Amino acid sequence: MKHTEPPSPQSCTRSSLFLIGKDSRGHWVVQDDQGSCGGLFVNRAEALKFAMFENGNRPQAVIMVPGIFELDISGKAGPEQRLPSNTIQMQQVA
User: Fold this and answer.
1) How far is C-alpha 20 from the chain's CA centre?
2) What is the dihedral sign for C-alpha 35, 36, 42, 48?
3) Out of 10-19, 43-52, 63-72, least confident range
4) For residues 22 and 46, what is the distance between their CA atoms, to the nearest angstrom?
5) What are the sequence ranges of the domains in the chain?
6) Rg of the chain over all Cα atoms, to the nearest angstrom
7) Alpha-carbon span 84 to 22, nearest angstrom
8) What's the CA gap between 49 and 81, in Å, rounded?
């Protein structure tokens, strides 16, 4: 029996960009650039798998964020407020 991913309760397909990084507790964080969906993951592979699934398998739309990246579930902050203050360069996943 093949395991398939359940659909996301809230579609993230409108999002053009997904950010991936680690929070201050060492969990992997994924959040779309609109702040409408995301989650915490135990490892990078699962975080990347979620981001790729939600964005239609587009690696060019996944950005690795260096430094501390906290999940914001308030929905009030824009993408520039979600990025760590020490972010100089983001790395695109290929």
Assistant:
1) 4
2) negative
3) 10-19
4) 13
5) 18-92
6) 13
7) 11
8) 25
CA–CA dist 26, 9 (Å, integer):
25
Structure tokens at 28: 């992997």
Which position has the token pair 């990347």?
48
Residue type, 14: R
Q: pTM for the full model? A: 0.68
Q: Which two tokens stand for residue 5?
A: 């991913």
Query: What is the separation, in whole angstroms, between the first and last Cα of the chain?
Result: 30
Structure tokens, 77: 């902050």
Alpha helical stretches, state H, the chain = 44-54, 79-82
Side-chain half-sphere exposure of 23, counting CA atoms within 13 A: 16
